[in-house]
UniProtKB/TrEMBL annotation:
Occurrences of domain 3-hydroxyisobutyrate dehydrogenase-like NAD-binding (ranges): 165-283
Keyword annotations from UniProtKB, A to Z: NAD, Oxidoreductase
SUPFAM superfamilies: 6-phosphogluconate dehydrogenase C-terminal domain-like, NAD(P)-binding Rossmann-fold domains
Lineage, opening ranks: Bacteria, Bacillati, Actinomycetota, Actinomycetes, Micrococcales
The protein, known as: 2-hydroxy-3-oxopropionate reductase
Residues of the active site: K171
């Protein structure tokens, strides 16, 4: 059993830390705002008073924060991981960030005497709660194999996809596919409603054919009920589509549908929907067609 520091107990980090504690590891959590420790403490973990304290005794340091600058801060700040972790500790970054940032942070971790892998996840809040995440892992083979039992505690499909940063490249592709899929399910729903079709029945039959997908399965309820509690926030998906469009541009790869859906995600955010689940792309489709009640939430 390992001593694990877990930094970032948000929608994803909290249930993941709970699974590690339930599996018998000593989990020391650190969260910027102090109201997030309840589930971890109930599972036998404990709260640290600072980031430096959380990582000081850890064999493994898990990070699950929103964006590239956040991971940079957690690692490189004065009270951060690189300054306070034990030599040889293994950093597992579960956050979804830019592949180039993941590569350069892994180099800096190595220079500081640590090891680091990128292990972004897919499967949403439900996947985290059920411990069935898909985890795309970049890093040195030996480090990935050492991390594998922990990764398999929070996930079901764990695949080593290449050297440092590769996990983030695969995650960017994942976010491209998911965004496009949500947008098309939303367009199909508004189209079906315009014809007065029984949409729940339509979703049942669509789900059984080639149009079926995890997105349709997991997001149809949100869309049919117009209930957009996150989940995965539009703000975060906007961040991910920024990552994939700029990485594609750097590689000289053209992703026309990706570019359109990135703009639609940006529009949803600009319309005040950034805090809603990404299934709220539906609201943008409704706005374009002059349908539904798409006034800002709370109005
Ligand atoms: P979240 O609920 O917003 O949680 C983020 C956590 O990071 C919070 O605990 C927050 O602390 C902390 N944090 C934010 N900025 C920080 C900083 N600069 N330094 C230290 N801690 C900081 O986000 P989430 O949905 O769990 O997402 C986390 C990551 O997982 C993101 O990269 C996201 O893209 C990825 N992801 C999310 C999902 C999903 O369905 N939600 C699915 C797959 C991947 P406070 O409590 O103080 O704000």
């Amino acid at each position: 059993m390992s001593t694990i520091a877990f930094i970032g107990l948000g929608i994803m980090g909290s249930p993941m830390a709970v699974h590690l504690a339930t599996a018998g590891h000593q989990v020391v959590g650190f969260n910027r705002s102090p109201d997030a420790y309840g589930p971890l403490e109930e599972a036998g973990g404990r709260a640290a008073g600072s980031l430096a304290e959380a990582v000081a005794e850890a064999d493994v340091i898990c990070v699950m924060v929103p964006d590239s600058p956040d991971v940079e801060q957690v690692l490189t700040a004065e009270d951060g991981v690189l300054a306070h972790a034990r030599p040889g500790a293994l950093v597992i970054d579960f956050s979804s960030i830019r592949p180039d940032v993941a590569r350069s942070l892994a180099e800096r971790a190595t220079e500081a005497g640590l090891r680091m892998i990128d292990a972004p996840v897919s499967g949403g809040q439900k996947g985290a709660v059920d411990a069935v995440l898909s985890i795309m892992v970049g890093g040195e083979e030996a480090d990935v194999e050492e991390a594998r039992p922990l990764l398999e505690t929070v996930g079901r499909t764990v695949v080593h996809v290449g050297p440092a940063g590769s996990g983030q490249t695969v995650k960017a592709a994942n976010q491209l596919i998911v965004a496009g899929n949500i947008q098309l399910v939303a367009e199909a729903l508004v189209f079906l409603e315009a014809y007065g079709v029984d949409t729940a029945a339509a979703m049942d039959v669509l789900g059984g054919g080639l149009a079926g997908s995890k997105v349709l399965e997991q997001k149809r309820g949100n869309m049919l009920d117009r209930s957009f509690e996150p989940g995965f926030r539009i703000d975060l998906h906007h961040k991910d589509l920024g990552i994939v469009t700029s990485a594609a541009r750097e590689a000289g790869v053209v992703i026309p549908l990706g570019a359109v859906v990135a703009q639609l995600m940006a529009s949803a955010r600009a319309q005040g929907d950034g805090g809603l689940d990404h299934s709220a792309l539906l609201r943008g489709v409704e706005r374009l067609s002059g349908r539904g009640d798409t006034s800002p939430e709370g109005d």
